[in-house]
Amino acid sequence: MRVLVTGGAGFIGANLCQHLLGQDWVDSIAVIDDLSTGFEANLAGLDVDFFEGSILDVDALGTAMLGADAIVHLAARPSVPRSISEPLLSHAANATGTLNVLDVARGLDDPLVIVASSSSVYGANPTLPKHEGLLAQPMSPYAVSKLAAEQYTLAWQHSYGMRTLPFRFFNVFGPLQAAGHAYAAVIPAFVDAALREVPLTVHGDGTQSRDFTYVGTVCETIGTAIRDQISHDAPVNLAFNTRTTLLAVIEELESLLGRRLLPEHVGSRVGDVPHSQADDSTVRALFPSVEPVDLASGLAATVEWMKTQTTSD
Ligand code: NAD
Questions:
Q1: Which residue puts its alpha carbon closest to atom 33 of ligand 1?
Q2: Between 20 and 30 A from 245 (CA), which of 129, 162, 180, 213?
Q3: Distance from the alpha carbon of residue 12 to the mean position of ligand 1, in angstroms
Q4: Quick check: CB of 50 below 6 Å from ligand 1?
Q5: What is the CA 304 to chain-centroid distance, rounded?
Q6: pLDDT per residue over 107-144, tens digit each?
Q7: Could you tell me if the CB of 179 is within 6 A of ligand 1?
Q8: Is any atom of ligand 1 closer than 6 Å to the C-beta of 300?
Q9: Would you say the CB of residue 34 lies under 6 angstroms from ligand 1?
Q10: Pocket of ligand 1, candidates 36, 57, 88: which has the most ligand atoms within 8 Å of its Cβ, to mutate?
Q11: C-alpha torsion 170→313→48→226, nearest 10
């Protein structure tokens, strides 16, 4: 089987390529990435056919997609704050880019198309845990663009009979997730600050909570979906009904590192939702063999990886 990973030079994409290369049912992997937030170095040593190009370029997309049996569409401009600064760019990459991927995929021979959406689509809806039937109430341009992406994906299923699977990812973390930039996610930002022994920037009082998902669990779920050819006619939360406050993440890091850490509280960020927790009944029913990696083990792996980064810098 040939798998195309869009955004394969990014954090989740490169972890996924690594995971797929270990599967005996995978014959080859292609990646298309414009390296806007990803790094070619993430793919160093991995046997993938790398196409540097944008999903906004339909010809480049057609070339990269040639012969693909499955597509995992991860390419996007991630981050809520980035979308608030640059809403048009966010829409172009995330909504129009997804439309391009789906439309070019129509020329393939019955592919399975897996698409990354986001828990941010639940937005202002306060119900916990978030089940997929809840009303989406996006609070940021990023969330709207992801809602458009997943709904286009479902429309392609209904309109063209394409086999598709839209996943809603919730705060994914793990090795290869970049810290040290303005839009860094919270776990790499915390781990990076902790290892550099500088204060950990906490937006708000730190009681906001997230359903953190280790990247290995995400890759295993996607890999199982491709191997077993699983599609679904509605979005699927890819998270496992856990909820951890930022303050609890700091405590977990303190016990891993064996020392106290200093949080520095700054103002809350516009567009951030207060709490997030996935109802996991759909993902559990579709993927009964997947056992999620717990937060402590995932954090330990993340710290180990980040140590190799800080020492080689
Ligand atoms: P990432 O920034 O590391 O990866 C995104 C990749 O897409 C990058 O390599 C980037 O260069 C590439 N890209 C961006 N625009 C492109 C374009 N026009 N053409 C080709 N490539 C392009 O981010 P990630 O965390 O690995 O996210 C992967 C996917 O998962 C994204 O769709 C993101 O929205 C979604 N997601 C991630 C999380 C999370 O917690 N990390 C949560 C919800 C959803």
A1: 78
A2: 180
A3: 7
A4: no
A5: 21
A6: 999 999 999 999 999 999 999 999 999 999 999 999 99
A7: no
A8: no
A9: yes
A10: 36
A11: -20
Residue 155 confidence (pLDDT) above 60: yes
pLDDT of the residue at 124: 93
Q: For residue 262, how far is its CA from the centre of ligand 1 (angstroms)? A: 30
CA-nearest residue for atom 2, ligand 1, is: 37
Average predicted confidence (pLDDT) for the chain = 96
Does residue 130's CB lie within 6 angstroms of at least one atom of ligand 1? no
Q: Is the CB of 35 under 6 A from ligand 1?
A: yes
Pocket test for ligand 1, best of 5, 6, 12, 122 (most atoms within 8 A of CB): 12
Token pair 């809520």: residue: 80
pLDDT of 102 > 90? The answer is: yes
Which residue has tokens 């909820």? 243
Q: Is 149 in the pocket of ligand 1 (CB under 6 A)?
A: no
9 CB near ligand 1 (under 6 Å): yes
Contact 27, 1 (CB under 8 A): yes
Tokens of 201: 């920037």
Three-class DSSP labels, 267-299: CCCCCCCCECCECCHHHHHHCCCCCCCCHHHHH
